């Protein structure tokens, strides 16, 4: 499991910069849940990592601000019974988070006005709907 994480073509997190902690899980495990350390906490120091390019670091720190503690991103995985599967799940989750945080911002939307035809269709549909509802007024004379 000591292999580098490939996040994007330009961002590869070395295995040496990841730290793992193991503890007892509260999840599935049967009788072994109280003896096996299957819960995994994977930590990555995003703020001081030399593997992260500077232009990506600022973007990622801003996007992951609510998940960071002193610049360190921590992922916990305890949904599986085995430590190995939880380690894989934590790594996959970390890659997904970092990839989403490193993605370029979407292009700015240029505001446009609705077309004349779309305005007319909207008004015509409103009038049809009003007539339908007008027939529902329960006037009993």
From TrEMBL:
Boundaries of every Prokaryotic-type class I peptide chain release factors domain copy: 11-135
Superkingdom, natural source: Bacteria
GO molecular function per UniProt: hydrolase activity
Location of the region described as Disordered in the Swiss-Prot/TrEMBL record: 98-141
InterPro entries, A to Z: Pep_chain_release_fac_I
Coiled-coil stretches noted in the UniProt entry, renumbered to this chain: none
Keyword terms: Hydrolase
Protein name: Alternative ribosome rescue aminoacyl-tRNA hydrolase ArfB
């Amino acid at each position: 499991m000591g292999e580098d994480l490939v996040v994007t073509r330009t961002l590869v997190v070395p295995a040496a910069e990841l730290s793992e902690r193991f503890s007892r899980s509260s999840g599935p495990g049967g009788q072994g849940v109280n003896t096996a350390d299957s819960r995994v906490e994977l930590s990555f120091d995003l703020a001081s990592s030399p593997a992260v390019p500077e232009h990506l670091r600022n973007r990622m720190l801003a996007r992951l601000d609510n998940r960071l503690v002193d610049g360190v991103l921590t992922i916990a995985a305890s949904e599986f019974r085995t430590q190995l599967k939880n380690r894989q799940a934590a790594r996959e989750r970390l890659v997904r988070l970092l990839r989403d945080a490193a993605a370029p911002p979407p292009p700015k939307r240029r505001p446009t006005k609705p077309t004349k035809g779309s305005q007319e269709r909207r008004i015509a549909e409103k009038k049809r709907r009003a007539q339908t509802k007008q027939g529902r007024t329960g006037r009993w004379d």
